[in-house]
Amino acid sequence: MGKRVFYVTNNSSKTRDEIVSKCSRLGYPATRDNILSTAYLTACYLQDIVFKKKVYVVGSKGITQELDAAGIKHLDVGPDPMCSDVASLLRNEVQLDKDVGAVVVGFDEHFSFPKMVKAATYLKQPNCIFIGTNTDEILPTEFPLTVPGTGTFVRAMETCTNRKAFKIGKPSPYVCEAIIKRHKVDPKKTLMIGDRCNTDILFGTRCGFKTLLVLTGVTTLGEVHQLEKSSNKEDQELVPDYYIDRLGDMLPLIS
Amino acid sequence: MSIKNLASLSRDEVKNLFSSIDTILTDCDGVLWLHMKILPGAPDVLNKFREMGKRVFYITNNNVITREEFCVKCDKLGFTSTKDDVLTTSYLTACYLHDIGFKKKVYVVGTSGISRELSRLGIRSFGVGPDPLISDVATLVMKDFKLDPDVGAVIVGFDEYISYPKILKAASYLNHPDCLFIATNTDERGPSFINDCVIPGTGSMVAAIETCAGRKPFLIGKPSTYIIDAIRKRYNVDPERTLMIGDRCNTDILLGTRCGFKTLLVLSGVNTLDDVMNWKQSDNEEDRGLVPDYYIGKLGDLLPLLT
């Protein structure tokens, strides 16, 4: 039908190439240019502001590889556990790099106290940029377990630095700016499809897109009706224009 | 009500104030010592309070040591204390579980300061120490971690071994609405600075777990009023005849205001007189709870007024 399709994900652990592989495996054609993931968008943001220093990353190779692709210098990621005790850590083991000008917090399965100390100490400088890739509190859950999401690490760092992170992913407006700027998209002729009202639909509303909620994921129809009835203006932004049980149900309607 | 500078009161006024006080609760860092250096005159003032027949309690949001270890630290700095004078949040957390008749197990994201105080009161716990991610998140979730059905509470204190597996486990236990969620305190940063480093405080560990658990904890430490419940269950204390001394308005003074204590702010720590004046003039009623009854430059300045 001649429509451009973009895959928009808050996942910060994968590079665009890895997402392309995953999409292909599952039968969805994709190229790097149609993927908008937060690791990639973080690198875009740093390019947009002409960032020339180094980045301290609390996150994964998904982020550092996208930074490499954009020519942005960064410190290494991976485990950084407590080796001795707090006093020794602070006295001897924290060696800060004077060239660090930004801290990026993404999903980090190796999150640790030494990393928190380093990130917070870099962020003591007011001109050190503070970026959070996204604020999803949990990943799709494996009930009865809860799988913490990036929002967990971002909130921890916002608390001990008393600073707010610049958020890259949905529902923040940066994704919108990046799409419009890089891909010349007209918001009025754009449809956002998602399963989560407080990220996907809210994001679409804020960008001026039309919004379609699919009921195969997080948000239920019951929850949408509650939001519709709410007198809270903010809740109204989470209400989609359209909904459908699942994306596949559209096929007979458009062929 | 105007805030009075204690140092500008007459000896009779000071005498009258203290004759209406039986119990003194004092914060430690910023009042008695600052980054492990004694604030001059502070030990003498506390000794004088005791000579005058007042009961003195040390109140601290510190939860990484037991009360006995805290006494050893006090002793090194020249302050006399016994464990019954000390109220650490590790001890108070154990008191809380004891007071509510808690019989299950506790999952602790914190140090042995907490687990040892729990054990003293016969409460079983686990989780303290390193718990790094060995394989990957998928394996942890699918295979490596099974919920212990006997866990009835999660306590979060300062934990230098904070890790993804610990946050995942705490949040998973907290999925059950009957599982208690307790935070020792919410201080965002540690009180000291070593080498100019920022020391993330318990508050940041609590924020991490609150975020993914989607729940707020019951707070033990200042400015939560649990402290006064704990003290009154164990000692005969009259809030109206109690003085709270602290350096931080949004924990120490706020606690005092909420409990109906008289409050004294020392200016040797976190807050300044300007801060106080701003809150006094604020339209926000909550801000006025941060305003102390009295202030003084440092605790040691009281000594000439008491002798």
From TrEMBL, chain A:
The record ties this protein, via NCBIfam families, to:
HAD-SF-IIA, PGP_euk
GO terms for cellular component: cytoplasm
The record's keywords, sorted A to Z, are: Hydrolase, Magnesium, Metal-binding
MF-aspect GO terms: metal ion binding; phosphatase activity
Q: Which cofactor does it need?
A: Mg(2+)
Name this protein carries in UniProt: Glycerol-3-phosphate phosphatase
The organism is Cryptotermes secundus
Binding residues annotated for substrate, in chain numbering:
170
Asked whether the UniProt record includes S-adenosyl-L-methionine among its keywords, one would answer no
Entry's cofactor comment: Divalent metal ions. Mg(2+) is the most effective.
Q: Does the keyword Magnesium apply?
A: yes
Q: Which residues does the annotation say bind Mg(2+)? A: 195
TrEMBL record, chain B:
Q: Could you state a single Gene Ontology molecular function term?
A: metal ion binding
Key words of the record = Hydrolase, Magnesium, Metal-binding
Obligatory cofactor(s): Mg(2+)
Organism superkingdom: Eukaryota
Which parts of the sequence bind Mg(2+)?
A: 27, 29, 247
Q: Which InterPro entries match?
A: HAD-like_sf, HAD-SF_hydro_IIA, HAD_sf, PGP_euk
Extract one GO cellular component term from the record.
Answer: cytoplasm
| Cofactor annotation remark | Divalent metal ions. Mg(2+) is the most effective.
Annotated residues that bind substrate are located at 222
Q: Active site: which residues?
A: 27 (proton donor), 29 (proton donor)
Output the PANTHER family linked to this UniProt entry.
Answer: 4-NITROPHENYLPHOSPHATASE-RELATED, FI11325P-RELATED
In which family does this protein belong, per the annotation? Belongs to the HAD-like hydrolase superfamily.
Q: Which named protein is this?
A: Glycerol-3-phosphate phosphatase
Organism, per UniProt?
Cryptotermes secundus
**What does the organism's lineage look like at the top?**
Eukaryota, Metazoa, Ecdysozoa, Arthropoda, Hexapoda
